[in-house]
Amino acid sequence: MSFSEIFKKSFLEGYTGSDMSSAQIIFALAMTCLIAVYIFCIYRLMTRKTFYSKNFAISLVALAIITSSVIITIQSSIVVSLGMVGALSIVRFRTAVKEPMDLIFLFWSISVGIICGAGLAKIAVVASILITAVLFLLDILPVAKAPMILIVNASADEGKGEEILKLAGKYSKYTKVKSRNLSSGLLDMVIEVKVSEEEKLVGEMSAVKGVNSVSLLSHDGEVTF
């Protein structure tokens, strides 16, 4: 036997993983499925106030099981693992993940598949419980109130803009002019405010001479502390 053959044999034998029994494989996939369904339920609860995508939630379960199957498969030998890496490297994902919370659940699902596929289901269970506790704890913590958008259309009289800002400052400690547009003798102002007495602000602003319309909108943008 030549040196090259001896080297190849020792290399492949050194990197050949231990075969999992049928019982171990079934247990790993079953635990993956159970935890993935648990992630599905947590995702549904966390998105109860926002847009919920059923297809994305189902994909979390499928992704965990597929990942676990891949990890179990590549443990058989280095040849299979290298072939799997080569096959997966040609896959291109072009779907953009817009919500940071969706990205968290994606990584959670993939991690569960990897951990359970490696035969460490206990770590996956403990990690899932810890992640759930952290997510719900941070979700119920009070945060700063998001500012509102005040839109005012008025006549372009001299000093009208300052009068509008002064009145807005009466009900809001925080005011920031986002835009000021002057055209055809009309003034359009968009002001960011943090106000609790919304009805009083709109009513008093509408009563100002020269003000044609007032709108107060809420938005889900950045929160100002």
Task: Briefly characterize the structure.
With 225 residues, the protein is α+β, with helices and mostly antiparallel strands.
Structure description:
- This protein is α+β, with helices and mostly antiparallel strands and 225 residues long.
- It folds into 2 domains: 3-140, no CATH class; 148-218, Alpha-Beta Plaits (2-Layer Sandwich), CATH 3.30.70.
- Helices cover 57% and strands 15% of the residues.
- It is built from 8 helices and 4 strands.
- Strands 2-3-1-4 form a 4-stranded antiparallel beta sheet, covered by helices on one side.
- A hairpin with a 2-residue loop joins strand 2 and strand 3 (186-193).
- Helix 5 (100-117) runs antiparallel to helix 6 (121-140).
- The model has no long low-confidence stretch (mean pLDDT 78).
Keywords:
single chain; 225 residues; alpha+beta; Alpha-Beta Plaits; 2 domains; 4-stranded antiparallel β-sheet; 8 helices; elongated
Topology of helices and strands:
Blueprint (H helix, E strand, L loop, with lengths): L2 H12 L7 H25 L7 H21 L3 H11 L11 H18 L3 H20 L7 E8 L4 H12 L3 E9 L2 E8 L4 H9 L4 E8 L7
Antiparallel strand pairs: 1-3, 1-4, 2-3
